[in-house]
Amino acid sequence: MAEIFDGRKLSERMEREIISELDSLGNPELRLHTILIGENEGSEIYIKMKEKSLARIGGSLFVHRFSSSVKPEDVTALIKELNSDPSVHGIMIELPLHSGFNIREFSSLIDPLKDVDCLNPENIGLLLQGNPRFSPPTPSAVMRIIKESGAGLKGAEVCVINHSPSVGRPLSMLLLNENATVHICHVFTRNLKERTKNADIVVVAAGVPSLIRADMIKEGAVIIDVGMNRVKGKIAGDVDFEGVSKKASFITPVPGGVGPVTRYTLLENLLKAYELGLR
After folding, report:
1. In the chain, at which end, N or C, are there fewer CB atoms within 10 A of the end residue's CB?
2. Is the backbone peptide bond immediately before 96 cis, with ω within 30 degrees of 0?
3. 27-111: what fold?
4. What was the pLDDT predicted at 9?
């Protein structure tokens, strides 16, 4: 039976560390600005969670909502305004972005020193060089959880089921930096079971409920579920938790697993952005 990871306990530890650092800096108010285009239930949930986490450390979240019919130049103007405002410490855009808008275009406009989601090309380049300014929140949370599991990464076979710019791709770089052997899978991957069956660690963020079943993993594997789906009115991940937990050695639940750690990794980036602004 797998050890079930408690993301809330780790996030509470991270919170204490952030509060301690803020105390040493004179308890400044960290200010994060996020941009939401169109309506998205998942984004609204995440916004509320970020707001609560920020409030717990004495920070504030400012949400800029646009309709899906907004002109790109209006969003561009806001980003430039936020870039020039010294009271703004972090800027991010809620993903997934509404269709018709280009995340690459908007993320390239965000000041690299305020890019707490690590999507600006300059920050991605630093990550690829192995010298990140910011570590992308979800991939960084996954790395921290893997280390919490006690699994060694050197030489480990890791299967990542996601190849997005915000999760799979940067996560693969972080894993390679730890000398893991990484297999990236996605919607076009053939025979997914063959990839997952031999993996020591499986990280899944496909957005497909119960995609990973017990017969797809090897005995004692570490399973990190980043998926977030609504099934019959409840939040569920991408893993058949009941079946897989009987075979894995370590597993993250949904909710209460990767999510809380991701939010506090974001706050760590926001704190770092504040400190960069002091220099």
Report:
1. C
2. yes
3. Rossmann fold (3.40.50)
4. 97
For helices 41-56 and 258-278, give the axis angle rounded to 10 degrees: 60
Both structure tokens of 255 = 């909710």
Greatest alpha-carbon pair distance for the chain in Å reads 55
CATH topology (fold) of 137-259: Rossmann fold (3.40.50)
DSSP designation for 157: E
Peptide bond into 255 cis (omega under 30): yes
Going by pLDDT thresholds of 50, 70 and 90, the confidence category of residue 40 is confident
The CA angle 133-139-143, to the nearest 5 degrees, is 100
CA count, 13 A, side-chain hemisphere, 67: 2
pLDDT tens digits, residue range 157-205?
Answer: 999 999 999 999 999 999 999 999 999 999 899 999 999 999 999 999 9
Q: E-strand spans in 8-87?
A: 31-37, 60-66
Query: What's the gap between Cα 81 and its chain centre?
Result: 26
Calculate the dihedral angle through the C-alpha atoms of 122, 127, 129, 130, rounding to the nearest 10 degrees: 150
List, by residue range, all CATH 3.40.50.720 domains of the chain: 137-259
